[in-house]
Amino acid sequence: MPEPHPTRRTLRLGVCGPVGTGKSSLIALLCRELSAELEIAVVTNDIYTDEDARFLRAAGVLDPARIEAVETGACPHTAIRDDITANLIAVEDLEERFAPLDLVLIESGGDNLTATFSPALVDAQVFVLDVAGGGDVARKGGPGIERADLLVVNKTDLAPYVSVDHEQMVADASLARDGRVVIGLSRSDRASVNRLVTWVRGQLHRQRTGTLVPADPGPMARHSHSHSHDHGDDRHLTEHHDHLPLGTTS
Amino acid sequence: MASAELLLMLLADARLPVAGHTQSAGLEPALRLGLAPDEVEQYVATRLSTIARVEAATAVVARHHLRAGLSTSVVEAAWAARTPSPAMRRTSRAQGRALLRLARTLWPDDAAVATVSGVPRASRAVALGAVAAAGDLPARELARLVGYDDVQTVASAALKLLPLDPSDVAAWVLRALPAIDVMSADLAHLALAEDIPASGAPQIEAWAEAHARTTRRLFSA
Ligand SMILES: Nc1nc2c(ncn2[C@@H]2O[C@H](COP(=O)(O)OP(=O)(O)OP(=O)(O)O)[C@@H](O)[C@H]2O)c(=O)[nH]1
Ligand SMILES: [Mg+2]
């Protein structure tokens, strides 16, 4: 683990998920909802451009100086998982320049379902899917879908247009996640936005009271036996976050 | 204490977590701004006789200063004077910071690492001097490390940026090795900041400046 921050009050929250599912929009939404009560900064991991950083700066929800873009050399997964140096430096810079920060949001770049954040970089992570990606995605699973601290099924307002039953999608996801939190979200659905904001406040509270232990979704697929019986295994995966879940099969 | 050979392998390994994947050693802007794809091998050689040479010499002299208990500020200043591009100095300092972050975990009690960590904005070359002092890496191996890392940084970035056969790129690296040996033999004995060669590459520096201003880039530098 990198240098420990035993007294760090800032919550480092990762946001990952496939391209175009609404990660930047979710970050902009959180800034809009929370910037009156919280000191916030953002790190983006763009692949080709500083598009995400520019989108957020243009959204006008945060002082542009609080948005930092990290280049990943076409290795977006490496930058959040096996060599988190560039991201950590960006986070630490922001935390130092704008101390005391309450919340640093880190948007991953990249394009697939297997990327998750190292628990050495973030305290908690959100995985974002959208209904337009199809109703099956949540059921198919993957580490982020199954074990990120929060799964967001985004753009529920679009569900009727893409023939997806978004409530079923949320139910499938909840099953795949053994009860971990799933939020069906649309920026035009006030109640869903409130649920998201409440969840973030909850994480912040846990961070401040020292009860938030980063849990690693890990890179591995879930065990093939029925998920309704492997509760114990999953607990094991999330609690021993600094080890890969190798050899934990019962 | 492990052998110098093994330490060198650890430090030269692309898997070392010092954000090496974010670097192209200037290749990305070079290709965008005029270097032809078939000139990349020549680009590697040019860097070895210019920018990498300054960096290797700086690292060697910094190592010497740290072992002798001398201040590295004159070494840092000599490197900065030989690196006129502000963008390149910023990149090097970001890399220095990444390296020192790792070095504090690898050698938590080392005086050289602590000293250079206490200097604001140490360059990568000076940070490497501290790493070599901490790990007892001989000067010649340190210069080899700088040369080798420079070549591999270009090579691995080339694979991302150009349609190349990875085996051909490995062959470039192999062909560059003798030049790295010659360079490290030349520089290993250096002890004084004033003896660091002033062998810049103005075109590469201009490209680095242009890269720092673009909004479309894969690599940080
Ligand atoms: N209908 C609808 N569209 C949304 C919602 N949230 C985001 N979008 C749209 O989805 C598109 C992609 O959103 P982004 O926030 O850029 O997605 P992203 O995941 O950051 O994309 P990348 O960074 O390119 O991977 C944009 O056109 C958004 O306006 C939503 O709740 N409803
Ligand atoms: Mg985005």
From TrEMBL, chain A:
Organism: Nocardioides baculatus
Family matches, as Pfam families: cobW
Annotated spans, Disordered: 208-250
Positions contributing to GTP binding: 17-24
Keyword Cytoplasm carried by entry: yes
Record-given protein name: Urease accessory protein UreG
InterPro entries, per the entry: CobW/HypB/UreG_nucleotide-bd, P-loop_NTPase, UreG
Listed HAMAP family: UreG
Function (record text): Facilitates the functional incorporation of the urease nickel metallocenter. This process requires GTP hydrolysis, probably effectuated by UreG.
Name of the gene encoding the protein in the UniProt record: ureG
Composition bias type Basic and acidic residues, residue spans: 227-244
TrEMBL record, chain B:
Gene3D superfamilies: Urease accessory protein UreF (1.10.4190.10)
Pfam families (UniProt xref): UreF
Key words, A-Z: Chaperone, Nickel insertion
Designated name of the protein: Urease accessory protein UreF
